[in-house]
Design a protein that fits this description.
Blueprint lengths: L1 E8 L3 H13 L3 E4 L6 H4 L30 H15 L3 E2 L4 E7 L2 E6 L3 E9 L6 E2 L12 E2 L12 E5 L3 H12 L3 E5 L14 H9 L4 E3 L3 E5 L3 E6 L2 E6 L2 E4 L3 E2 L2 H7 L25 E3 L14 H21 L1
Parallel strand pairs: 1-2, 1-6, 2-3, 6-17, 8-15, 9-10, 9-15, 10-11
Antiparallel strand pairs: 4-5, 5-6, 7-16, 12-13, 13-14
Helix pairs in contact: 1-7
Length: 324
């Protein structure tokens, strides 16, 4: 059993920022991550470029220098790895949290490798682990995936991309440029207005010229080994298909929060209950940081506007320690 002032679950940028905050405040801490360092970023497409500039992704006053203003996935992975080295952060990788017990005195955590006791718990678990399911027949076929790494794999294949936002647009353009025959299925009447401004005209032009076929106001009804069936304004149609890339978004593990005792709103957003001034939840000494704070509204919080969460949390923990 190991004892710490603060236990942090999540080894992404916001989890690391909280570790740095603890370190600067003289608090003992450990960061627990079930995957590799910044696991969500690692699972991003290999060719991805961030929407944010590098300075907005910085944590712990460590400069983030990138070749272009908007860094790539590879540059971000290298940056956060160097942050861990520079700050000598206490992080445990590939260690999954299995159980969390809370009391007025703190928390007890059992992982796949160890048992930990802490006075405070910070949850910075992100939202990239659970994809939004389409709930259609054939979605469990091996050719259907909610994750995408590299376009070369899909060269000269019939590829169907589901979605109309940044991920879907990037996948459609990249696979098309590698020789895939790309079809998009989009529930909305247009490409998402929030798509990166330098990419949106590109996909619209490819659709208008017929290089990429897009079915708007449409939904998949069935997936088979060789076809995908679509309900569209043109009627019920089928298209030849080798791969379905469902870029339908992801959601945080809200059931994990509920098991800890954190209350969620009753609406579709299911926003966790916490004090925005301190980030403390309805469970004493349990805090939230990062995109997990938004519940199902995963587009509101990013690295750049979540870095401040660490400051609010550490300030509150220190104030509590002062009066105890």
């Amino acid at each position: 059993m190991k004892n710490f002032d603060v236990i942090i679950i999540g080894g992404g940028p916001i989890g690391l920022a909280n570790g740095i905050g603890c370190q600067n405040a003289g608090l003992s801490y450990v960061i627990l991550e079930k995957g590799c360092l910044v696991n969500s970023l690692y699972n991003y497409p290999t060719t991805m470029t961030f929407f944010s500039t590098s300075n907005l992704l910085e944590i712990g006053d460590v400069p983030f220098v990138s070749i272009a203003a908007k860094p790539t996935r590879a540059e971000a992975l290298e940056y956060y790895r160097r942050v861990v080295i520079a700050k000598k952060l206490n992080i445990r990788l590939f260690e999954e949290v299995l159980e969390v017990q809370t009391s007025i005195d703190g928390v007890i955590i059992n992982t796949s490798k160890e048992k930990y006791v802490g006075k405070s718990l910070i949850l910075a678990t992100g939202y990239y682990d659970i994809p939004n399911i389409m709930n259609v027949e054939g979605e469990n076929l091996p050719k259907v995936t909610h994750y995408y790494k590299d376009p070369h794999f899909y060269a000269f294949q019939d590829v169907l991309v589901v979605g109309a936002n940044n991920s879907a647009v990037d996948v459609a353009l990249e696979t098309w440029r590698k020789g895939a025959n790309v079809t998009m299925v989009i529930r909305e009447p247009e490409i998402g207005p929030g798509v990166k401004y330098w990419v949106r005209p590109d996909i619209i032009n490819r659709i208008e010229e017929g290089s990429i076929k897009a079915y708007f106001n449409s939904e998949i009804t069935k997936i088979t080994e060789r076809e995908v069936f679509i309900d569209s304004p043109e009627g019920k149609i089928s298209v030849p298909n080798d791969w379905v890339l469902a870029m339908t978004g992801y959601q945080p593990n809200l059931s994990f929060l509920e098991k800890i005792g954190i209350k969620l709103s009753d609406d579709a957003i299911r926003k966790p209950q916490y004090d925005e001034n301190t980030m403390e939840t309805n469970v004493p000494n349990v805090y939230l940081a990062g995109v997990i704070c938004g519940g199902m509204d995963t587009r509101r919080l990013f690295i750049e506007n979540s870095r401040v969460h660490a400051e609010l949390i550490i300030k509150n923990i220190l104030e509590k320690n002062r009066f105890n």
